[in-house]
Amino acid sequence: MKTKELDKIYNPKAVEEKWSKYCLEKELFKADADSKKPPFSMVIPPPNVTGSLHMGHALNNTLQDILARYKRMRGFDVLWVPGTDHAGIATQNVVEKKLHAEGVDRHKLGRSKFIERVWKWKEESGGAIIHQLKRLGASCDWSREQFTMSPELSRAVVEVFVRLYEEGLIYRDERLINWCPRCLTALSDIEVEHEEVLGKLYYIRYRLADVLTSQPLNLSTSIIEYLTVATTRPETMLGDTAVAVHPQDERYNKFIGKEVLLPLTSRRIPVIGDSILVDLEFGTGAVKITPAHDFNDFEAGNRHGLKRIAIFNERAHIKPDIPDVDPEVIKEILDLHAHKARERVIHILKEKGFLTKVEDHKHAIGKCYRCKTVIEPYLSPQWYVKVKPLSDEAMKAVEHGRTKIVPQGWENTYFEWMRNIKDWCISRQIWWGHQIPAWYCIKCNKNEIYEVHGEKNFTAKARPVVSRTEPKTCPTCGGKEIVRDNDVLDTWFSSALWPFSTLGWPDRTKELSRYYPTSALITGFDIIFFWVARMMMVGLKFMNDVPFRDVYIHALVRDAEGQKMSKSKGNVIDPLVIMDKYGTDAFRFTLSAMAAQGRDIKLAEERIEGYRNFCNKIWNLARFTLMNIQESGVRSQKSEVEYSLADKWILTRLNAAVREVTVALETYRFNDAANSIYQFIWHELCDWYVELIKGDLRGENGEERKKTAQYILVKVLKDSLKLLHPMMPFITEEIWDVLPIEEGARGKGQWAGGKSIMQQPFPKASEDYPDAEKEMNSLMEAIKAIRNIRSEMNIAPSATIEAICYSADATVRALLTSEERYIKTLAKVSDLKISAPADRPENAAVAIAGSVEIFVPLKGLINFYEEEKRLARDLEKVMKDLEGVQRKLSDENFLARAPKEVVEKDKIRVEELLQKKAKLEEGLERIKRIKSGNQAH
RNA sequence: GGGCGGAUAGCUCAGUUGGGAGAGCGCAGCCCUUACAAGGCUGAGGUCACAGGUUCAAUCCCUGUUCCGCCUACCA
Hints:
By secondary structure, this protein is α/β, with parallel strands linked by helices.
């Protein structure tokens, strides 16, 4: 059989396509609910069905996949549930945009036709992200792909809704809510993004009703004829129904109970005292109250029984029927959007002398998190979840450690939000989503009906019938005319059920009992509130147990400058482009290596390039290995008697890597795992071990030695690939496929006689050889010292040299002697002398490595000036270290109080440094002597 | 306004029980040495933001200051 030659450079594309296809066809990612193995389960944070893979997804799913693959190799039956959510608003926007291009709108189409269109869109173009996740290598159980709008999951949604309603945890009420005038729907509090802007504070005078008003307004008058209010939203004054002052404010409290004339209207509104709303220090100390358009004013209105006058329609345009407003004014602003109306109102107020002052003012405005439109507080009937009883349980679960949040710092964020939680507005005025299972009897609610777009809507006073199935008749009056509530549920409502609805709930499935609670949830901090907190609440409520044991919160991916990536900034890095350019493995490894806990990831392409190089390094390691083993494969080897020092050393270092990677993955320290494996493969296995055994592999040290070296090389490579596999699934699979399985057998592709690397057990640390490790370290030090001399003395890399090693330590001499071939090979030494300290050669560069004094005779080639500089530099460094340690050791307090191991260590160190110092000084002396001798000639 | 996090090599960042400061990239020098130039060898570079405190010992713990981020909040 011919040895398979690998290409000189790793080509990810073909490899990824091949294995991706193969693993999917063979269904290697499937969980087995009947398995005897212990379960490990995760649910994917479902991406929007409209979405395409961005950096956040890539990081999130890479980390999940690393865990999934690791746990699989550790012998777990891994279930990783994939799927998408229906993304109510976003999806509806997409389809509406398409309709718009066709010249249709959804109202013309009608609700059911529209929903059909959305489903059609979903089938055709939805879920592109699923393919992209597969491309990323995500080893989800694709046979269990879920969708929040599927009939099964919809059933769970209805069930949860009805039960919560029956328990009084869901109710309907009319109050101010956050309204997006573009999406035309209510939003929950957390769907509003606050943004600080520099706005204006407008001062407007409201004339007191009971003061003589016959004379023209005189701005310089000292008699108080008016109250001046300050506002950021002058246009809402048309909806004012009171002015508030602080009851303790001596400037104004005499006006409480009086009335003012609202400018631009014929409305008289009361002056009221309210200590909650009014801050004495701010503005003028007098506040206009617009209960229908401001959350604080709404509350104040409730406290004082004020009327609510809405001045905007659902698109935040001025309504025609605002009571009391001057018709001239209405004519000017009718149907203007709020911000246009503001300009007009200010203009009119100014003209009429009501506007007294305008100043800059920083304040926050709310924007729709989907479309960035400025949100408008809007009065309407909505459905709410009463969350306090649920959040109490959810807090306890984390307090008691039933769910662990990693890194722990995020617990504060979680608790903080849970403590201040407000009822959750769950109804949305859109069509795509789970329609609320509530119906209204026309007869019973005939006074509560109002029409919007020809649809019947019901006020908060209407009495709904909430039911799992559509009622045929009204349970109260038997009436047959029944209308369903138009609203749909917040998409996050269905996401909250994801960890159990995807496992078959409300049925008591095998999966549910086996995989719930899930083992871990991996997600970004930006959806702790949206998703994690709500899953906790709902999971505890309906499953009586937490939805997951661990929550690992990872960072956000930013660009190299630390900016959040966004399309508008144009700084997005497309993961698909990156994967094309550098390969998926390199990309995944980069994300893993940069996923340090508690810090955002600044992604720079150079970093990815570096790990692409690492892939190539691994590839060439494999290539080298294949070139150096028997075509018949490698013998199996159990006995360690034939292990060389290098063999024992690399096995020991491998063990260290195995331990580090294992601990790191168990504790979600993905960057540590990546760095350990990188360090090991590149800087220990490739840089040292491979170089050390090249002679062995060439047969220079006998056939036995050759076979053993081959065996160890293959073993270490295979274990390295296994360690690496969770992070780099493709390249490891490809190499695994061509490596020898056992004695006499080689990989022939597609695991002839073997299995996929993902089905292999994760490496376990075997026997350590601590002595070999120490000895190897001494040798490496000596080799590095000689290399240093070579470089500093400008000896051509191709030239061989002579070296003399003196050591007073017989053990060390024995080591150097028995392993001299390593020094000769790696330091390119042709003539190596090892002995007890004797006469120091004169024309030689010198270096100290541990107890070994190394001389490189340079017969006239030596640059004394350079050598002196080099030695002086080394000496200086040693002196500095020595000084530090000696100072410590001369401190009685240190000797008395520090642990004796620490003191002992420092004492040994001083000894070593003193020795080194003496030798360097000697060397320096010699150089100086020679130099002066040379000069004398 | 409240809360959280960060400040370590030119850049991006590690540094978990306080005990000789690390990596990657970049930079400089020398090398196409038959696994790999997407490579090898060598090297330069840090008062660990600042000021105090605790300790025999502080990059690490405590306090304060400065400068950055982020989250959160109804001061009109």
